[in-house]
Specification:
Elements (H helix, E strand, L loop, with lengths): L13 H31 L3 H37 L3 H28 L1 H6 L6 H16 L2 H15 L4 H23 L8 H41 L19 H33 L3 H38 L2 H28 L1 H5 L6 H14 L3 H16 L3 H13 L1 H13 L2 H28 L12
Helix pairs in contact: 1-7, 1-10, 2-3, 2-5, 2-6, 2-9, 2-10, 3-5, 3-6, 3-9, 5-8, 6-8, 7-8, 9-10, 9-15, 9-16, 10-11, 10-13, 10-14, 11-14, 13-17, 14-15, 14-17, 15-17, 16-17
Length: 477
């Protein structure tokens, strides 16, 4: 991409536009998955108690990511739609509003993690004191620096909105390489390097996140800074935003009240959805805790293993979100539905592949992370049961991304929160009906299947209601 230049997703052939944008995002998602699993592999060598402690601390990082998604989704949707309308100055205002909001929220939540790690971990009702102690240690370090991943997440969304998914790939790859190098050194401490165990894993994560952020910052200052000269030149030639080919993120721009309100209006439902999803998982964690630290470790690590599927689907969904936003802004509605069906087919096929892998190789996968036979057995049951839902989960993600690209975040978030919340009574019912811990796994699977069917149906109904079936634009509200 040349400085200050946007990738317009309203002109290219649909499949090539989506694939070109999605492949770097999917690769970045794979690296993110590998990033997390690398931690788990090395921490697994310390035992299931250490894994459970890190998983408990990571639960609150996941919860805080809802606030990051608030800034990212609000900024990404408005930026993409503004680019589709070729209102570049407005796109810059939304971009900087999202960055500012992510920084402020990161500082607030980081302070809470530093000051009250013990109170947060004990909310999960974990019984083992060693697990609580390790969770506090991990949360204080990684949670205290949560502003860094907040900014990385938001910048990833903003660059994707403008059609540049290559830079997030470079940034995440740099962070992963750093994390893979530091994990064995800091966790196990070979040679003269001190053995820091869980503390080492937390430090490796934070350092890697800083490396990723530095890639974005360097690009913004050095490369986009050159594009700002073009902005000034074009603005002197014309007063209309449509004729200004703007670099989005440099130089800094003060967002106005309307831009911040727009980000909050679109981003708040998406952020609350992530927080609610994590809150429900916390409740399920308290249920799993009754079966021991091994069950807690499997629940947390099982989600990381499963993220091989949903991170890839989420990467394609991120591309679909930007594609939908730009085409909706340009009024090209026929491209929206065609892009949606193509993305859904690709992601569902990907989910089906991992259903087969989880069903055929559950024990081999489990032995990569666990060493205790009883914990391996729990992980096998998790992979076999939850693996059945992978195609449906992928369909849910693509439908949700398309809905958010239209600006319908409230519809998607409300439906997702209600259906995800059904996991709680269903899990308690199944565990008390004799299914034991497997009742929790079945609750996850059945609700994921329901969400996949329901979200796809909701998207099609929204398209019909808003007449998104031809190239004629509907009236935007």
């Amino acid at each position: 991409m040349k400085n200050g230049e946007q990738y317009y997703l309203t002109e290219s052939p649909i499949r090539s536009a989506l694939i070109r944008l999605a492949l770097p995002i999917m690769a970045s998602s794979f690296f993110s998955t590998a990033y997390n699993l690398t931690d788990m592999i090395w921490i697994g060598k310390l035992g299931s108690t250490a894994l459970a402690g890190v998983g408990a601390g990571g639960m609150f990082l996941w919860f805080s990511s809802g606030f990051s998604n608030l800034a990212r989704m609000g900024g990404q949707v408005h930026t993409a739609q503004s680019i589709g309308r070729k209102q570049m100055r407005r796109a810059r205002e939304y971009s900087w509003g999202a960055v500012l909001l992510a920084a402020l929220l990161g500082l607030l939540l980081g302070s809470i993690c530093i000051l009250f790690p013990g109170g947060l971990i004990r909310l999960l009702r974990i019984r083992e004191e060693e697990t609580i102690r390790l969770g506090m240690r991990y949360l204080r370090i990684t949670g205290g620096m949560v502003m860094i991943p907040f900014l990385n997440n938001t910048l990833t969304g903003l660059y994707t909105a403008r059609g540049n998914s290559r830079l997030p790939l470079i940034a995440n790859t740099a962070g992963l390489a750093c994390n893979m190098l530091l994990d064995p050194l800091l966790v196990l401490g070979p040679g003269i390097i001190p053995r820091m165990e869980v503390t080492g894993a937390a430090l490796a994560t934070v350092i890697a996140q800083c490396i990723s952020l530095s890639v974005f910052v360097i690009h913004m200052i050095w490369l986009e800074g050159r594009g700002s000269e073009k902005i000034e030149e074009n603005q002197r030639k014309s007063e209309t935003d449509a004729e200004v080919d703007a670099a989005l993120l440099w130089p800094p721009m003060r967002p106005d009240r309307e831009a911040l309100d727009g980000i909050l209006r679109i981003g708040f439902p998406a952020g609350m959805q992530t927080c609610a999803y994590c809150f429900f998982s916390m409740i399920l964690t308290t249920l799993c805790a009754g079966y021991g630290s091994g069950a807690v470790a499997v629940q947390r690590l099982g989600g990381q293993i499963e993220s091989i599927t949903w991170n890839a689907a989420d990467g394609f969904g991120t591309a679909l979100n930007a594609f939908t936003g730009q085409n909706y802004g340009a009024g090209k509605h026929d491209r929206i539905r065609k892009g949606f069906w193509f993305a859904t087919a690709v992601c569902a096929a990907w989910g089906g592949l991992f259903t087969l892998i989880f069903l055929l190789l559950p024990e081999q996968i489990s032995r990569l992370f666990f060493y205790e036979p009883e914990v391996i057995a729990i992980c096998v049951s998790y992979l076999v049961i939850v693996g059945l839902s992978e195609p449906f989960m992928s369909a849910e993600i693509t439908a949700g991304a398309a809905l958010c690209g239209l600006g319908k975040t409230a519809i998607f978030s409300a439906a997702s929160i209600v259906l995800t919340g059904c996991r709680i009574p269903l899990a308690f019912y199944l565990t008390r009906r004799g299914y034991g811990l497997e009742g929790v796994w079945w609750a996850l699977t059945l609700t994921s299947m329901a969400k996949g069917f329901f979200m796809t149906t909701v998207f099609l109904l929204v398209c019909r209601k808003n007449r998104i079936h031809s190239s004629q634009p509907s009236v935007r509200r």
